Amino acid sequence: MNVVLADFRPVYLTEAVDQRKLHECAVRFAEFVAQADAARDGRPCPDPPPTAIRDAWDRYGVSPTHIRTRRISVLPDLEAAKDPADIDYATIPFSRSFLEQAGGADLGERLSIYRRHARAAVEKMYRDGESPPDEVIHVSTTGYLLPSPLQELVSHKGWTRTTVSHCYHQGCYGAFPAVRMASGTLTAAASGLTRQTARVDIAHTEICSIHVAPDCVDAEHIICDSLFADGFIRYSAYTDHAFQAHEGRGLQVVRSAATTIPNSLEAMTWRPIANRFEMTLSAEVPRLIAKHVQPFIAGLLRETGLDSPEAAARIVWVIHPGGPAIVELVGRCLGLSDEQIGSGKEALRDGGNTSSATVPRIWDRLLQNPDLPRGTPVVSMAFGPGLTVAALVTRVV
Length: 397
Known about the structure:
By secondary structure, the protein is an alpha+beta fold. It folds into three domains: 3-11 and 109-243, Thiolase/Chalcone synthase (Peroxisomal Thiolase, Chain A, domain 1); 17-106, no CATH class; 251-396, Thiolase/Chalcone synthase (Peroxisomal Thiolase, Chain A, domain 1, 3-Layer(aba) Sandwich), CATH 3.40.47.10. The protein is built from 14 helices and 13 strands. Helix 6 links the parallel strand 4 and strand 5 (163-168). Helix 10 packs across helix 12 and helix 13 (342-349) crosses helix 14 (358-367). The chain starts with a strand and ends with a strand.
């Protein structure tokens, strides 16, 4: 039995905003927070001063050269449409919390914001009257509460035969274990271990914007706050028999693989703190990836018969754009051309890093390309805390 990924459905809660504009908004937001902190503490002037905030953002913020637009759920469309100088952060619910306490809303309050936006996103993923899946797997790195937004949706719609599972806190490679889970569910059903199942949905709700840290103006925080964006997408994993009844194309799952790089546990982390989830990135990440990615991928290509020059030439590569430099680094390590790594760069330019939702966004774009022939092998990879390298080999069908 084969498993096919199809019916990709991205949804949007907000309009895309130009990266230059978001850069200016971020500077003014950080200035607003610094002034609020100074007033609360009775200090005569903010620390850091506005000039230092702007200098830091100009130095470390991800350039519009790499990202054209991003979607930010905590900045309402009405405010995003204004000139950045006209935005009143004291009236926006998310930013207003920084007036009340240092660091803004606590983690519980931020996750309440997450729940509201995530529930709105999953409602848009499922149209009224649509047939329910046998199972749905909820993927998120940026927010999770139980009952989850997917459990709320299933309960509200009365889908009593739809099972809800969760794939949380995996980072940018979250789609890969979710596909393994969906494949395992379908395989178990085909073996008679569970009730009959022909369709497992995977729904990503990533709201990175609730974890911004405008009070932190170091390089690490500014890079993260100017790189990540919010993303929502749903798609289905079908048995090959069930997929035959559908129009359109899909990606047949061939092989999944992942590895945790030795001695890399602190190179990238994603941890809950008092008022948000916080990411740390070591300068060692590029070196560790450069050392381990080529032998990992070489082994995967051997296992799937894609290691010959003829087969390798047909591969379409999907490299998660963890940042502008990561895609190019992986491309150099694997001997790929600029054209071969173009899908990752394009996804970054057109939406930023939407964590686990990014690679499925790229899969959706690939399947919309009529010039991509059936049978084309697609090799996808992403990186995350661990330090983990995850990969998936699929074939266009």
